[in-house]
Amino acid sequence: MKTVLLIIIIIFFTGILEAQTIWLDELDLTSMQCGWGTPEANKSVEGNPLTLAGQKFERGVGTHAVSTLLLNLDGKGKQFTAFVGLDDEVVDGNGSVKFFVVGDKKILWESPVMKKGDKPEKVNLNLDGIKLLGLLVGDADDWIDYDHADWCDAKIEFTSKRTPDELVVKTAIEPYILTPKPSDSPKINGAKVFGVRPGNPFLYTIAATGKRPMTFSAENLADGLSLDEASGIITGQIMKAGERNVTLIAKNEIGDAKRELRIKVGNQISLTPPMGWNSWNCWACAVDDAKVRESADAMVSSGLINYGWTYINIDDCWEIKPDAKEPELQGELRDKNGMINTNKKFPDMKALADYVHGKGLKLGIYSGPGPLTCAGFTASYQYEFQDAQRYADWGIDYLKYDWCSYSKIAKDRSLPELKKPYQVMRDALSKVPRDIVYSLCQYGMGKVWEWGEEVGGNCWRTTGDITDTWSSMSGIGFNQAGHEKYAGPGHWNDPDMLVVGLVGWGPQLHPSNLTPDEQYTHISLWSLLCSPLLIGADMSRLDDFTLNLLTNDEVIEINQDPLGVQARRIYDEDGKQIWMKEMEDGSKAVGLFYPDLGEKKEPEKYFNWGEKKSAKIILKGNDLGISSKFTVRDVWRQKDLGVFENVFETEVPYHGVVLIRLAEAK
Ligand code: GLA
After folding, report:
1. Pairing mode, if any, of strands 275-278 and 311-313?
2. For residue 391, how far is its CA from the centre of ligand 1 (angstroms)?
3. Fewer CB within 10 Å: C terminus or N terminus of the chain?
4. Residue 67: beta bridge partners?
């Protein structure tokens, strides 16, 4: 009897010793999705002490809506406790969030809508039998601005031993590569039509895949242009307006390829959506001259240049920052002639532009119509003409012009006030002898798509900032329906930059939080939408999966089609969507998507519960205006699927896409 009692006592105490507590701040937070910035252990999302309604917390996790974290409790959880709320760091009167705790797809707890200064809500939950636990911060249905949310003193008690590593659920689906390797024979890619203004410097690099060495030549090259045989870089200037048809030729030991390039010398540039890289989504303010050069190098060494990727765009943080603490950002904002200065991270912008041009690429820069940029650096207010002149002197090819502090200058948000500053910079750019792509960035205010072309924009952001979460990317991408009538050659809708590869708003980076299927959706949708394609990744560390996303010539061809017709949504039911884009050759590019967005977003829909879901999507030729038989090609796999009569059906992965090209069968 005594022995039995002893055994029971031993088992009891071993149980207690094994039972343990894991704090949220001990977990690897790279799998936590966050609508802006990066989640922080024991700090707010902006790196301040966690503070709710004046009360400071030593421990917890600071994040930003929409934020999710899925934890594998394996039925061993006992209790979850935390205090939650909106962090005091946000500007008064801004931000509102709602917290949810979801267990095995059921809502276990939800907070009221929480604003700054609200007393922290206490969570105290029994976790008996729960296998997967989801923590969600939603935006309380009013968009995510200022939604800095804290899980304070958050911890889980377990009935038996668990380690922080076992708890974190990593992306369930392994990356899978669809893009076939290019053939060794030459193939010419990139834009088939190119706009330039008379007399302005001309730069176009023939993009071609195939075995190296390769030599390039051209038939009927326009007067004033010359072609470098080894690199395929065409430079010079054409003085007279009009259209020139040039035949480009790429040759290697296996054979040659020929393709027409239509050069339109006139008033329009950006006849196909700009393709390139922008520093913001990876480096943010950690960008410097070396990183820009490294990105240009990588654009060439990775082979991306062979697909038409061209622009290397510096975003915010290259200028002097008034009141900066960092010595490298300090200095005179402008010289005595009012010409803008760079900060010490960019010692010689002209030399940088020469370097980038030498590789056959183009250099972009960033400013805004207000006194300061979004990150608080010098912007163009009242120096628009000097700035345009400066950009031209340096050899800048692209300007992203970001509203931000112009809020303080504008009298109100009326249309004339929204248009005015963009018109001023347009006039300035038009006076300089250089083709500078003009990218408006004002997050879609005043339905900018309706007047972006009128103020001379080559593209305009239609949304707030993208981040590498499903809710952000899908929320933006699938919201573009109806904008198609405003896009066309020289003027494009811009649903923001790509969030693939290593991103993170620097200096710390992480792999995109989008699943592989979500990334295929991202690139397919942006291509169908004729969106500018600006890679937001660390270019020097592109993995095979990311390269596969960015080097599919048939996908890029959809984006770069000379007709420039943006896809429209032709079907939206039961969580399935079909988008269709008319192509110049009469064929149609069609994306069959299964975003499963739902009427309203139920909290459990934010999590990937590990089930492999897919949906059958049926496409009818009639819906596309095709009455006869049609051929179908799988664009990502670059495979013909056969001839179909009126109906094509296919299985589409959850959050994924099947991208096809259809043509009437002969
Ligand atoms: C805004 C823009 C971003 C980026 C930053 C730079 O948020 O929307 O794309 O340019 O400013 O500060």
Report:
1. parallel
2. 19
3. N
4. 137
Architecture of domain 187-265: Sandwich (2.60)
pLDDT tens track for 587-642: 999 999 999 987 567 899 888 887 778 999 999 998 898 888 999 999 999 999 99
CATH 1.10.10.10 fits 21-166, yes or no: no
Superfamily covering domain 276-462+505-543: Aldolase class I (3.20.20.70)
- Report the distance separating Cα 47 and Cα 27, nearest Å: 17
142: pLDDT strictly greater than 90: no
pLDDT over 80 at 662, yes or no:
yes
CB of 249 within 8 A of CB of 258?
Answer: yes
Q: What is the pLDDT of residues 378-403, one digit of tens each?
A: 999 999 999 999 999 999 999 999 99
Q: For ligand 1, what atom is nearest to the CA of residue 375?
A: 12
Q: How far is the CA of 464 from the centre of ligand 1 (A)?
A: 9
Is 402 a known active-site residue? yes
Taking the model in full, what pTM does it have?
A: 0.88
| Distances from the Cα of 66 to the Cα of 25, 34, 456, 537, 599, angstroms | 18, 6, 34, 21, 18
Q: Give 3-state DSSP helix, strand, coil % of the chain, rounded to 5.
A: 25, 30, 45
The question of whether 297 is a catalytic residue gets the answer no
